[in-house]
């Protein structure tokens, strides 16, 4: 079986203007957006399903508070007609959003997850995907996170947080692949379809 069947849905998480706010701190993987765009372009060219997830915070001080600039999609990641948009209020894109139902109604069993924040919305969404029985792949180089201070006051560099989060996912919930691997597998699946 192909790693990424032609019905695999690309789920792009929280690519909103608020992610560029300096107050979020230092991040890792400066090439993440270009890898996300490569995946998005390939999915659009092949007519595969695309889902855009947007976080709408319940907290007025958040960069994702509804009605303000930070809640808007970044220009390069604005949904096109026919692409599904999911709005969430918690990190998990499956929680109270209808995403699971939308996928099941279309008989989509495979999901490719990319976006931000690796150890928050990406990880929680991938965990739910795995727990709900979807075959999940996370694009490790098409995600990023920020430095994180633990409860003891230690500051963990974003890259350490990122790789540990991906290791958590790979243990039980999802395969973690790089963009080049994903595009190769997707091309192979597309060629097999014709």
TrEMBL record:
Gene3D superfamilies (UniProt xref): Isochorismatase-like
Record has Isomerase as a keyword: no
Domain of life: Bacteria
Annotated EC: 3.-.-.-
Domain Isochorismatase-like: 8-181
One Gene Ontology molecular-function label: hydrolase activity
Pfam families from the UniProt entry: Isochorismatase
Keywords of this entry: Hydrolase
Family annotation (InterPro entries): Isochorismatase-like_dom, Isochorismatase-like_hydrls, Isochorismatase-like_sf
Entry protein name: Cysteine hydrolase family protein
